[in-house]
Design the sequence.
């Protein structure tokens, strides 16, 4: 993650550099090229190395670039949104305000499942299929590994080789902040940027490990659980709460030797679902046998996505879900803003250091220290 943004720190002379700092070419698999006006950095020149540091685009340029579906600008806008620097966050939020009226139209699909279930392979197959039908597909890969490695762009690219080079597709890995699965801290903002860029299908892939699925399900309109046939009892190792969230269950790898096991697994899931409340009132969660590798059942999967969307729209639940999504976003940004204001309060850092020392030396109890600081 730190690899993405190295700029913007104080210079060696102690003076802060450009308050917003240049944005590095983003680490996505499709954009990432320096924008027009890229300059050879001084450091690069003196060392005789030819690398470029792109000039920071203005908010206007970012806005126009995103709306014009300029991949490079979209990537930079996402990098800005993901930056942890307060000034970047201010700019990123201003950008969200500017693009707001262009968002909200996409199909927001979440794919979760255990590692190796075939999520990426499925996105490659269905993504290419959608692109060939004239859709514009954005894929956000929530990637726990990239928090460690600084981005597994190559991994994503090799898993989605055709989609990565497709004209009307955009793939963006987002590192989670150390947590496994779930969503990255700016997935919502990234999704908005992709919608503003005219992607009418936004797919979010996230590893599911039994507790993070809820986070993803809350972020998207349609939540699809990708499963793979295993040996024995299929229902083991998959939590009831997770199955309850699924709007669609796709048993992948229903091909070759695995086909019989995949069929049995699907029957087990169908049986289990009968005892659970529906994920969406008025909708019966389908359990589909698919093969991402052999392109089996993808049309059924997509018609289920569209069917679910139609139920959401007709029943008014889409508006409800969107409103809940907005409220969660509101609360999250509000919490962040309050915390930031609090920490920026004059004298806070000094008091924090004092209280930390006092707590450490057991001179004050933890609740007393917290109370003292908040006052
Ligand atoms: N037989 C078969 N193998 C598949 C199918 N889909 C994926 N695989 C294989 O399963 C393995 C994992 O696939 P991925 O698409 O990387 O799985 P993933 O769920 O994205 O994995 P993570 O991102 O690590 O969580 C790869 O070796 C794929 O080739 C399929 O439909 N049939
Ligand atoms: Mg994957």
Sequence:
């Amino acid at each position: 993650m730190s690899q993405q943004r190295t700029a913007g720190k104080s210079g060696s002379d102690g003076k802060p550099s450009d308050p917003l700092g240049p944005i590095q070419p983003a680490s996505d698999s499709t954009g990432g090229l320096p924008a027009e006006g890229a300059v050879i950095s001084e450091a690069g020149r003196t060392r005789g190395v030819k690398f470029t540091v792109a000039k920071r685009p203005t908010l206007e340029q970012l806005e126009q670039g995103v709306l014009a579906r300029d991949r490079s600008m979209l990537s930079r806008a996402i990098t800005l949104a993901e930056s942890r620097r307060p000034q970047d966050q201010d700019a990123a939020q201003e950008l969200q305000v500017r693009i707001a009226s262009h968002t909200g139209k996409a199909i927001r699909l979440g794919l979760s499942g255990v590692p190796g279930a075939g999520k990426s392979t499925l996105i490659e197959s269905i993504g290419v299929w959608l692109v060939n039908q004239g859709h514009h597909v954005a894929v956000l890969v929530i990637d726990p590994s990239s928090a460690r490695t600084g981005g597994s762009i190559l991994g994503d690219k090799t898993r989605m080789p055709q989609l990565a080079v497709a004209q009307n597709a955009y793939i963006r890995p987002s590192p989670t902040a150390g947590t496994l699965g779930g969503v990255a801290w700016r997935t919502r903002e990234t999704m908005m940027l992709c919608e503003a860029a005219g992607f009418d299908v936004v797919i979010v892939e996230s590893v599911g490990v039994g507790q993070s699925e809820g986070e993803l399900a809350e972020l998207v309109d349609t939540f699809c659980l990708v499963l793979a046939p295993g040996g024995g009892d299929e229902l083991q190792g998959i939590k009831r709460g997770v199955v309850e969230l699924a709007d669609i269950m796709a048993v992948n790898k229903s091909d070759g030797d695995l086909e019989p096991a995949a069929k049995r697994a699907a029957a087990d899931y169908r049986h289990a679902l009968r005892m659970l409340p529906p994920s969406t009132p008025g909708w019966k969660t389908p359990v589909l046998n698919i093969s991402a590798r052999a392109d089996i059942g993808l049309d059924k999967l997509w018609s289920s996505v569209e069917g679910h969307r139609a139920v959401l729209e007709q029943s008014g639940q889409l508006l409800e879900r969107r409103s809940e999504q907005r409220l969660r976003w509101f609360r999250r940004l509000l919490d962040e803003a309050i915390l930031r204001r609090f920490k920026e309060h004059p004298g806070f850092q000094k008091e924090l250091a004092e209280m930390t020392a006092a707590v450490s030396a057991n001179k004050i109890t933890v609740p007393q220290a917290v109370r003292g600081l908040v006052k």
Notes: The two ends are 35 Å apart (CA to CA). The beta strands are 39-40, 52-53, 107-113, 137-143, 169-175, 201-207, 222-227, 248-251, 287-289.
